[in-house]
Each structure stands twice: as structure tokens, then as C-alpha cells.
Amino acid sequence: MRPDESKSFAKEKDLTSPERGLLHVWHSAGPFDHLCPERVLLSRPVLQATLGEHHGVLLTQGGQVYSFGELLWRDLSIPVSAPLLEVSLLGKLVVHVAAGGFHCGALTEQGNIYMWGENTAGQCGLTDLVSEPCLISVVDSEAIPPAAVRIVDLACGREHSLALSSQNELWAWGSGCQLGLVTNAFPVLKPQKVEHLAGRHVIQVACGAYHSLALVRSLPPQNYNTQKCPEKKERGQSPHFSVTGKEDMFAVDEAHYCPLGVELKDTLTREVSIIIKENLTNQIMDMAYILVVQILSTARPLHSFSMWIHTQNLVLCLHPKTLSPTLYLQLYLRSYSNSGVFGPYSSSSPVCLEEVRLRLEAEKKELQWQKSSSLTNINQKAKTAANRRRSLPGTPTHGSPRRQRHCACRPSSAGGTQTAAHEEAGDGLPSLETEVWSWGRGSEGQLGHGDQLARLQPLCIKSLTGEEVIKVSAGSHHSLALSAQCQVYSWGSNMCGQLGHGSSPVTVPQQAKLSDGLRVWDVSAGQSHSLLLADGDCVQPILLYCGQCQESMPMGYISSVCSGGQRCAVLADQNVMGFISTIHELASKERHFYCWLSSIRKLLLNPLRNKGGSTTCVLSFCWSTLKSLFLFVYLFIFLSSECLGSQQITLAQLCASDQSVSGDVDLVSLMYWPLQQLHQYSRVLLKLAACYDVLTVEYQYLHQTANQYESVYLSLLRRKKEAESTFLFWKTHSGKIAEVLRLPHRRIVCESSNRSLTLQKAGRFSHHWFILFNDALVHTQFSSHHVYPLTCLWVKPVTEDSNALYAIKITCPEETFTMVASTPQEKNKWLRSLNQAVDQVLGGGGQGSSPGVAVMSRAASYTFTGDGRFKDAHYHGSWLGGRVHGRGTMKWPDGRTYKGNFKNGQEDGYGECIIPNKVLNKPDSYQGNWKDGKIHGFGKYKYANGEVYEGCYYEGQRHGYGMLSSGKRIRASSSVFIGQWLQDKRTGYGVYDDITRGEKYMGLWLDDQRQGSAVVVTQYGVYFEGTFKENKMSGSGLLLSDDDTYFHGEFSDDWTINGKGVLSLVNGDCIDGQFSGEWSAGLKVVGTYTKPAINEPENKERSRLFKLGQYVVPADQRWGCVFNECWSRLGCDTAGRGERTKAWENIAVTITTARRHSPGLSRSQSKVLECLEFIPQHEESVTTANYDNIRRYLIKACETPLHPLGWLVETLVTVYRMTYIGVGSNRRLLSQAVQEVLAYLTHFNSIVRFLFPGLPEDGGIIPDPPISPSTSRCVANSLEQGVVVFSSSSLLLPLLLPQLYPPLFTLYCLQQEQEEAQYWERILQLNKQPDQSLLSFLGVQEVCSTVKSVMLKTVSLLLFQIVSSSKDACFISAVETLQQISTTFTPSDKLLVIQKTFEELTQEVKPMLDDDFLWCMDDLLPLFIYVVIRARIRNLGAEVSLIEDLMDPNIQHGEMGLMFTTLKACYIQIQHESTI
């Protein structure tokens, strides 16, 4: 031992003895009076003890291993009170120890085995004596490559050792037939796999002196049904289980043969029939416990606290088959294994909750999908549940998570092993369908096969199949098996009475004789004695001894027992603060409950099943359709009367454990007994909580969980009483009304048959009967009745008036009435019952005890029955106080559907509606705003005939701005109208595009007819402006053809002239007179033909007649409906009249609503809307500091149509393009288009100034912000930079013009088409010349020679030298800059390009000039012409005209104005230059 280890060990010895994990050891020989248990004194709690012939091995907290007794391999004798520490195992994290006859074994957490002790038979896996623990490697040589095997369980006999792998395969080494290996060469020094159990799922192993036991999972029953009976094997051949590729299941022999060749007559066929026969019984037996587990799983836990009292984890712990009795207590009594704090008086709690949490989390990972134990999961896994149980209560390793982790890196060596392993992993829980296999020497009958023959290989003990064995233990010459029903089976030598029944040996398992009321939950077999740990009437476990002395030994709160040789040992705990006793009580109650369930199966279900006939069919149907235990209970009403008859004795036996049942017992009351378990859980949890301080979190969790269980228990009792009351109600009140109202889920709450409740203002002889069910309120009067669903029922108490009426007001979707109670107490009773029932049906707890008002706002479904708009309609959505309110969906029987917002019982807000059209067999659809049940606001309506209207509505009619598109589905032609509507008719200004005829009308309308001034253009270039009346041209008008032929005169019909007029031909000739006829077909003229002279002056009167625009609707009167809609969205009745604060609030509400109802917005769009939700500073005066903030806000607002300003811009762009694109691209519309843009700016500016009243008038100066005295000196230096002049065009044109630019610029190009052709021809010819020739042609030399000033002459010469020396690459930056004018949209941007071009020219010659030299535009004209020619700009005339028409008037006479004038002069100069 190293010095540091000695100091650590000495320090541990000085510590006080723990209060848990106390080990007591005594000899079993001699009378009981002389027995004196010896206490093992260790500072650490003992987790496990195991005994050999004359020695023992202990495992303590922290993974330390101790030995005591006669250690012959070391020639030492260690007293029990001072065991020896195995130093070589320190740090190995040992989790399990085993003791054989004269050797020992230890298992580490990594799955490694260490062996030491006597090794004469090779039982240590080595060749020599092993005095110190040595590592034994277990390698699967069949795997490719060979892989190490992880071991999870270990057992030792006198001359052999057995190990269980994580793949549930058995490995053996040592000597003798007890190995189960197919070999005659002993000793076996290396662990070898027991091939006879390959393909089986081994759960636990136990070693006797010269025999072995294995607990194995049974094969599924359905596997046996598909077996093909193989031929019998020859004698001596190993009867392995064969697995074929097609079967996926295990195949077994028809009959078993022992290694000696003796045929076993009890064939497997009988076993198959037993398992299949038990299938249905096992399922139904489990149902009695399903309710408890279901309630536990549905109880809502308090958050997800990682404590063992978590409701879901508690389900696993409370189930009697989740963990074995040994593991059950180990999980709680030994949960401190990784903690250094002991006892309740330390700063920690009595139990290390962290260790329990880790243990339960590991369990939950494996059992996660089944931990809820819901009925749905159970029904889905009905076939699996037929041969499995929720969990297997076996040894501690059964519940260990490491047993259920399978090695994925190695394949199974046997065909069925992997299948079985996966089966368990998929199920998540071990099975209770187990078998016990035995092999080795059988001279004392310890193998249990009915003889005293030896078995060289494992053989199944038939009599234990189906007994749900959960643990096996092997003594020297006898064996024990513990079942899930707490029964003990024993067989083998009985020389000292160790079997617990008589004194003669038995060769087949027999049930040990125990006193009534004892339930054994742990067993251990020694050399000639047995130890049993059982529950009795008291809380403390009862220790039972079977041997020479058979008296019980009270030794406190024992958690496990151990036997070996002539010694006995127990592990016990001190009951500090009642914690341990409460845990034992909890475990005892669960075992008692499971035993009761087993009695139900044995005494009740099995006889019913064996009865056959309709009973079995009913049971099967009940299992397949079961939804809750209450249906199962009602089934037994039939069974008790149909099958049991007067068998009260059987029922009395089943109710013997239920003290609450007295007198005659029926089957229904018996099946309700599991509900008592919930109350037991609550009581035990409260006792556990009492072990903690009330301020600790453990106390809070325990107390709250106990309250939850009690609440569930009381709720189920209440449901039981409701069911009983309902049964009595239907039995008492029979008739047609009762038959109509009777539903399976319906429960009676209260009723007014005693006339305690009546209708207000009811007649003297009227009879009103109110029945409150859990889902509806029923009002019956004579032979009629009305049902009011509670989901759509609102209850409100009426204040007592002078008439002393105790009234309750009931509000329903279609009716409101008042009920009057006879007394105040009756009123409170009904008010409380109504509120609780409504609250419960809405998903609440329904536990309110004080009268109040039920939830006013709720979501529910309802079908309207009364007359009205909603007749026969089904609604699902939100309600408020009896009216549809909020989001919902309304569906009518005829197919109409509305989905959207409601308010006060009517459609209000945004909604989508579908209206079927039976004639066209296609529905109309609408998406948009509603108000007071009518379409109101902006929306989009798609008609069944193909028309689509998108625009404004007012009280269900098209009113205001709107666009109607008509297709060819019904009409003969397709068309689009966009403009103003009034009461569902086109009235006001609008544009009608007849796409089929190729005509576009732009003018006034009245009552769906063209009426008033208008302009018409055709696809053939014909332009007409004039007046219309009754939908046709009537009155004066001006008509222009594409070849510039003009006519001004009277029209009587479309394109039909009738009256006086003047016709001007292209060559200038003129005809004045009376005209008649259609323009396209020919005219009849009576008048004067005039041919003007060559030098005749222009006729001003005639020019006035042919002037365009005289019959055109003024631009500021065209789209008033669009701007009115924008004002309406701001909350103003008319333009500029409204509250500014309300306008900003409407903007914020609109943006917020749009974000809520537009989930598909991108991140950038959401970010823009989020910025627009905030109302900017708008009341303060505008300064240069915040002017930029206003500009940025307007840019963001116009980017999204969800903002009123954004909608305005989008709509203006739409109407502009509809007007001037397509047929509207007529050059004679240019002036109208320009005037329309300017009108947009005027209206738009009025809206912006309304929102930001601090903006100055056009041309006004935007002041600087106030300057403090401290910064006045710094700011004074910056005043030279100039002032900021406000212009609406500079602020708003960048928002509008980029989107209006394509149609507008197209019109400019058409207008300048001839001039542009001439200009471009000159550009192409001039660009063919080199710079020298081009400069000479432009007259730069003449300019230089005519300059009088010496300085100017010098400059001109320098410029000429620069140009002449640079060849074609001169002033390239200026040329490229000027070319960018075609990529800009607004006049201000184009002017900036021109300014930058002049700056580039200045930078080129600046080094040659004096600092005080100033440019003159006349001097730069030839050079700028050169730059324009080299820039090759297409449609430069259109660019110049656009700038001239739309530029800011404030800069026309400034520097930029002069530069623009220079560019215009260059264009004119180039256009009129003669070519070289």
C-alpha cells in the first residue's frame, strides 16, 4: 500500500459510521438464541455484499472493494468487523462483486472482469494461483475482427464462473458440467460462450456449488405458431436454436433432449398452447393498472425539475414491475453512492438527489417512449403487450441502464442474439414472460427437471414457465426462484429445511409455504439455508430464515439479503426522520397492489376466459376498443350479472385487502379499487416531504406533487360519482327526451325537477325543466326541448332588484334568457355549477367554487339555426360575450365561406370570402376589408365570369378608386377599366382600355357611360379629344391622324362627323365647311378648300382650333379618387381635414396589422415595417438637422404598399402605366403626361405637408437648428456654404419618377423622334473623324485666334494642344461621366451628371491656369460639343426636354441652370451642323 493510500484509508477510518448501507453478518449454524449478528465497521456505506464458503467480498460507495474471512490464497484470516481493502482495485470504478467457493470476482463500470483466489479448476481464468485481482479478458473470437466483450453481470461457484455480456450472452470458464459448454477438456481457462443459449435473451445468472441457473426471456408466442417442426437431432448433438433467413424468429426443437439422451416427454407444443392461452389474460390483467399509470402520466408536473419525484419519473418508480424489489430499494436507499454526505443532519438532504436524478435519467433514456403509459400507446402495442410487461422486477442489473446499451461495433455471433437484443431495445423494457434454465450436477434435484440427472447443457425448467420469475438464486445444493407475485419456488436438497416446505428434497420447483399476508421481495440461498425478505403487516421488512432455525428475525429496515457457506448477511438502513420507513412503505404498497392484480387475473379473468363463448369475445372486443378504464368497468356490469352469478365468495377474496369495502361486493366497485392507489401516493409523498425542511426545494416539489396526485384522485372520484348519478338519472327519467339526450360521454351535473328554477316571466301554468350536463344546458317545456352547448354559453348573475328576483342571465349566440331561482342558495348553486361546467368544457380545471362570470372571450364551434344571415352556417373561431368576435371561419351549407375577422357578431376587418356561382359552376372570391357585415374598404374581388375588380368598396358596392379587368370568358372582348366608381358604377375620371379593339379612353364617366371631356387614342395612331354624351362622341372635338392630319368639328357618334368643321391636311391645305360620315370610311364635305400662299403669315385662329389639350380633363382633376383613398386611410374625411395625431396612429396600426397578418415577409421587409411602426417627430419645425430624417422616412414608407404613402405611390404608378403604356404610347399625350406628373407632386406634397407641418413652402429656406453660444464660433465658419431651399420636386420626384420614367421617357422619345433622327445621323458622321479634323471642324482654332485677351488666347491654345496631342483618348473621364446621364431618372440626378462632366473638364486643364481664372461658358462650348459628340448619347433631345420640363425652378438660373443651357445649346448645335 502506497503512503498516500494509507493516509487516505486511515482518514476514512476516523470518520463516523454511515447511517445507510449498514452490513450485519452472522453464522447460520446453531440455535437462534445464540446468533449474534456482527457489524461491519466501515466509514463508507456498503452497496453490495457477497459471501463464499468461508469468506466474503464487499463493495462500498466510491467503488472500493473489501474482503474478509478465511483468505486461503493469502494465508490470511480477516475479521468481519475490519475487512481488508483491495488496494489493487482502487480507481477501477467497480460496480459489482461476486464470491465463489474459494475465489472472488469484481466487475468495473467499463465492463472489465478482475478475478482472484483459488484457481485449481481454472475458475479465475488463469493458470496459477491468483493472490491479487487480475484482469480477465473476454474476447469474441467469432467476430471479425475479434472484439472485446463488455460484461454487465458476474456470478461464481466453487469451480466455475459465469459472466453475462451486454449482448445478453452467457460466457463461462472453469471446470465441470456446470459450465454448459460443449467440451470435455477441463479446465477451461479462457471465457467461452455458452452456445446452447445463443439466440436467447439471458437476463440473470446464478451459480451454485456445482450447478448453474439462468433467467431467460421467453420467446414471443407468435414465433411458435410459425415453427416448422424440425427433425429430431441425433443423441449427443447440441440442441441449438436454429434461425433461418426467412423466418426472422427462433426455431426450436419439437422435443427437448438432455445431454444424456433422455427424451423429455413434456414437449414444447403444450408450452405453446399455454402461452397463447395466457395471451389475452395477461392483457386484460394489465388493464386494472392502466388507469393509475395513465393518471400519473397525464398529471402535469411542475416544470421539468430534475428530481426523482418528477411525476413522469415517479410513474416508473411506482409501477410494481418497473424495477425489482431489490433495485427498487437500491434506487432510493442507495442513491447516495456517489455522495460524501450522509444523514439528515448534514447540510445536504437525507438522499443525494443528484444521484437519484442521474439514475432516473439513465432509465428514462431507455424507457422514454413508454414512460407515459398512455392507453393509446398500449393499444398500439397490443401484440407486444401480450407477451411483455411494463418492466421486469429482477436483480439490480435488470434495471441498470448499462444492461440495455448494446454494442453497435460488433455483430452478433448467433443469428438470433442481435434480434433479441434489438427487440428489447425497441421495447425499452424487459419482459415478465421469463423462463428458468438450469444445468450441471443434479444429484440433489437442484436442477428442477424432476430427476437427479446431470445436464451438460442448459435446459428449461418447464414448471416455472409462465410464473413470471424475476430472480433466481443458487445455493450449494438447492435453488430458489422469486416471482413477480412475491411467491418463492424452491427445489433441491432439503436436509435442513432450507426449501421452506417440509423436510424431504424435491426435484421440481414447489411453492414455499409462507404465512398469509407475507410478500417476499428478495431471496438468497446459502449452503444449507435460505434467506427471504418479505413485507408483512408492519412497515419494517420481515427477514425469514429457512434452515435449522425457521424463526423470523427482526433486524430493522433491511434493503437486501445475502447467503453463502454457513454465513448470512443483510444490508440495512437507519430510519432517520422517517425517510427510510416511508420508502419501504411505498414499495410495500406497490407490491401489495400488484399481487392484488394477479389475484384478479387468477380468480376472475382466467375463469371468465375459460368459460368461452360470448364472454371471451366481449373481453377481446373490450381490449381492442378500450379508451378508458371506466368502459372496462361498465363491461363488468354485464359480466357480473351474466357470468359470475352469485359467486360472492370470489369477490370477497379479492376485496379482502380493501378495508373500505364492506357488505356485499359487486364487480364494479371492485374494479374501482385501483383509484385508492393515487391517494396512497399522495399520502406517502407527504410523509417524504415531512423529512425535509419546509424551506427546501425538495419539500416544495414533494408537497406540490402530492397535491397533484390528490387532486387527480379527487377528480376521478368526482367523475365516478358523476357516472353513478347519471346512471341513476337515466334510470329514473325515461322517455323520448331522455333517449334523445342520452350520449355515452354525457354526465348529469344538476337539474331542476323540484321547480327550484324557472324562466323569467313564465306563465302561471307553464312548466320549465332545466338540466345541466357536462357539455350542454337543456331547457325542456312539455314535450319540446332545446339544447344549449356549454362551449357557446355565457353566464352572468343578475343583481337583485326591488322585486327580489334571484336571476341568472344566460347568453347564447342566438338567444338570451333569464332563469330565476327560488332561493339565494339555489341561485348560488346553479351559478357555481354553470361556471364550473363551462370552465371545464373549455379546458379549464372546473374547480372554481365561488360564483362568477365564465370566460367572456373563448374559441368554440357553433352551428346557427335561427333565421338571419348566418342561418344554418357553421362557425369556428373566437367569441366575445355570445357574439362572434375575432378570427374565425364561417361556412354555409350552400358553399359560402368566410374566413377572417369578426366584430360584434359581424364580419369586420380583413377577411376572405368564397361565394358559389351555380350558373357558371365556379365560385366568386373576395379578399379584403369588411365593415358591419359588408364589403367595405380596399379589396380584390374575382368574379366567376373571369372579371377581377381590385379597389375600394363602400357598404358592399364598388365606390372610389378601382380597377376592373374583363376577360373573354363571357364578354366578346377583353378590357381594363381603372378609375373612379360611385355606387357600383363608373362615375368620374377613368381610363378604359379596350384591348380587343385597340382603343383607349381617358376621360369622364357617368353611370357606367362615357360622359364629358375625354381623350381617345387608337392602335393606329389616331388621337381624339372632345366631349362624350351617352357613351358616344357628341359635340365638338379635335381629331388627329398619324400623318398629322387635323380635324376640328362636330361629332355625332364614335368616329362619326356630322356638322361644321375644319380639316387641315399635311401639306398645309385646309378645308372649311360641313362634314358628314365616318372618319375611317370617308367624309362627305361641303365647304371651301384653301391653299395657303408661300409667304402667308400663320393663321392664329386656325392654330387655336388645332391646339392640343383644349378638351382634356385637367391633370389636377384626374385621379382625385386615388388621393381621397389615401386621405381616408389616414383618417381624414376630405383632403387636409383631419387630426394629424389620428393619422399617425392609423399609420402605426396599419403597419402593425400588416406585420401580424403577413407571415411570409422577408427579413428586410420586416425590418422596414418595424422602423415604420415608430411615429417620427412631426410636430416640430423642420431644420437642416431633421430634414434628412424626414426624407429617409418617406423613402422607407414608399418602399412598402402596406404604408398609406407606399400604397399611394404604387397606385399612382399603376394608373400612370395603364394610361400611357400600350395604346397610350402616343406622342401627342406627352404634355398631358407631364402635367399629370406635376399634379401628382402637388397632391403628394399636400399629404406630406399634412403629416409634417413644419415643412416650409416651395422655395422657402430650411433653417439651421438653434446654435448654442459655445458652438456659435465654430458654426460661423460654415455659413459660407450656403442655405438649403426646400422644393417639393427635389423631395418627392425621387420617390415617384423612377417608377414613372419608362412610359414618360417613351413619350419624350416619340415626340423628339424626327429631331433625334437628325441628331443621331450627325453624331455618327462626326464620330468618324479624328480629333484634329473634328477640332478644326468645330472651329476651336478660330476661337483661339479671335480671343482678344492674352490670357484667354493662351488658354485656348493650350486646350487645342491638349486635344491635338491626346488623339482619341482626350477627356475620356468627362465623356464617361456624361454617358451616365442615360442611367439616371430624376432631373436633379441628370443635372448632377452634367455638373460632374464640367468638373472633369476643369480638372483636366486646371494645372495650366492661374488660381484666380474663371471659366466662361462661351469659351467651353466648342470643347463641350466635342465631349457630347464623343459620348454618343442616344435620345439626348428627350433627356434635355425631360430636364427642362421637370427641373426644380429654384435652380434654373443658377450654376446648374447655366450648365444645362450649355448642354441644350450643344444638342441644337450638333443637330444643325453640316457634315464635312
Task: Explain what this protein looks like in three dimensions.
The chain has 1476 residues and is an alpha+beta fold. It folds into six domains: 18-230 and 238-269 and 393-576, Methylamine Dehydrogenase, Chain H (7 Propeller); 270-320 and 347-391 and 581-715, no CATH class; 745-830, PH-domain like (Roll), CATH 2.30.29.30; 1024-1094, no CATH class; 1115-1288, no CATH class; 1312-1472, VPS9 domain (Glutathione S-transferase Yfyf (Class Pi), Chain A, domain 2), CATH 1.20.1050. 34% of the residues lie in helices and 25% in strands. The strands form twelve sheets. The chain has a 19-stranded antiparallel β-sheet. Strands 3, 4, 5, 6 and 7 form a five-stranded antiparallel β-sheet that branches. The chain has a four-stranded antiparallel β-sheet with strand order 2-1-30-29. Helix 10 (579-611) runs antiparallel to helix 15 and helix 33 (1387-1405) packs across helix 36 (1455-1472). Mean pLDDT is 77; it is low at 1-16, 223-360, 363-428, 621-643, 847-852, 1270-1281 and 1343-1352.
CATH C-level class of the largest domain: Mainly Beta
The CATH topology of the largest domain turns out to be: Methylamine Dehydrogenase, Chain H
**Rg estimate, integer Å:** 51 Å
The fraction of residues assigned to DSSP E strands is 25-35%
Assigned CATH architecture of the largest domain: 7 Propeller
Q: Please tell me the total number of domains.
A: 6
With helices defined by DSSP (H or I, 4 residues minimum), what is the helix count? Answer: 36
CATH superfamily of the largest domain: Regulator of chromosome condensation 1/beta-lactamase-inhibitor protein II
Derived from helix and strand composition plus strand pairing, the structural class reads alpha+beta
Number of E-state strands: 59
Give the low-confidence spans.
1-16, 223-360, 363-428, 621-643, 847-852, 1270-1281, 1343-1352
- Termini distance? 117 Å
What summary fits the major beta sheet?
Answer: 19 strands, antiparallel
Overall form: elongated
